[in-house]
Amino acid sequence: MMRRNVKFSTASRMFFALLLLSGVAEAQDTPPVAYQPPLFRAAEEQARPKLPENLSVKLIADEDFAPYSFLSRTGSPAGISVEIAIAACEQARLACTVEVRPFAEILPALARGEADVAVTGPRLDEKSLAAARMTRPYFRIMGRFAVANTSTLDSATARSLAGRRIGVVKDTVHARWLATYYSTARITPYDDLAKAGAALKAGEVDVLFGDNLQVIYWVAGEAAAACCRLLDGAYSDFDYFSRNLAFLVRRDRAELAQAFDYGLDKAQATGSTAKILRTYVPLDPW
């Protein structure tokens, strides 16, 4: 559930905002791909934590962290993280409400007891974990490659991309990762992913690399005009761009953290998590 040390720049947030306006990054009525998410942990058979039925729980989320949490076009809280949290609440038989606030207000509101669970917002570090309890992860931020449909490339290893032109957003963790591990490639920086994607479409670069979901939304979006495809699966590197997403629960609510772990396990086991991911993410993010 971390945010600020992964560079979601203003341009990146504008990119997601454009996707939201077009409907690509919002939940779709008909999921285009029936992929199956991996298990983030084996859901063990366990009893529901002893909490009152329909206990009122206040959730709080970043208002500007699409596609994980944001205000939908109808003005209601939405996003991958928001809907997974609601699904966990339903499975744990909790009566949850969601409020969105600016990023800077999330952790202070949790500390003051104005909310019980932070769905998105604070990064998972010593400061936030000293003030709250982390649930088990439910998703992971990763990186992804894409190529033109006409490309003969079938692998994104450093060896296979040696000498190839790779478009990436400049001054990002993704650009630094390429500089470290793909030094034999010709790395071409762009101001934002939309421009890097346009370069791939025009044949000015051979490969596109960036945030997994941003690349997926671009490939599936109107701007790409079905020109391109994902290459290989997602890449995970916790030293650079990968982060596990989890919820933060008030430090004094250990039983509530356990209830969310239970709810997340049940949502995973019943297929609710997979359904939510498939309705927000049009291509397999793994």
Automatic annotation (TrEMBL):
Endpoints of the signal sequence: 1-27
InterPro entries noted in UniProt: Solute-binding_3/MltF_N (IPR001638)
SMART domains: PBPb (SM00062)
Keywords: Signal
Pfam families: SBP_bac_3
Domain Solute-binding protein family 3/N-terminal: 56-284
PANTHER family in UniProt: L-CYSTINE-BINDING PROTEIN TCYJ, MEMBRANE-BOUND LYTIC MUREIN TRANSGLYCOSYLASE F
Name of this chain's protein: Solute-binding protein family 3/N-terminal domain-containing protein
